[in-house]
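quick one
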Amino acid sequence: VLALQGDFARHLSVVRSLGVSAIPVTLPEHLDGLEALLLPGGESTTMLKLMESNGLREPLASFVRSRPVLGTCAGLILLATEASALPHSSFGVLDVTVERNAYGRQIDSFSAPLEVPVLEAAGGAGFHGVFIRAPRIRRVGSGVEVVAWRAPGAGGRGEGAGREPVGVRHGRVVGLAFHPELTADLRLHAWFLTAVAGLRVAAADLAHRPSFAAAMPGARA
Ligand code: GLN
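structure w/ glutamine:
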């Protein structure tokens, strides 16, 4: 889990609770031997500046070109081919255009029910999305699969908008506009680790337990 800034600690604990070992990545050598990478939410501009200054930029760019990666919120921004107002270019491995902060400011953060076809195909229910100064996915490139949709009129700024993509996948690269690590629902992490990264997870209790509200006040964006 990239651990320069943001809510990497929650991702580390979710991955570990699924029985998969995980380490915080702060230096290039930490990438050696990793099977997959998670880019957390936080502040994409800060992460880009920090990775430029500590030598992580090129090693990360080459990792995300060849290995499974999950980016959430700011992490999605880092993966996108086009993102508004960034100080350095993003990695450009996921063909989507994202508009940063397009749902509004911190105070406009919201949670909303999502349709997640990859979970529903496995017989599960939808997912509760927590959005904190989230990027809005404005364009989805050809060959990019939508793995999560925000239902029409589902709360938050932009209410009344039609169904819109909030999670996308292109091969081994997955980007989510929301924060699955801030819910008690482990299914999206389990799906990424197994279906995308080809790892095995412990038979955990993945049941939908929407205790996201308790996590919201501590969230950082
Ligand atoms: N607004 C942040 C950015 O532009 C993303 C917020 C988040 O990751 N929760 O990087």
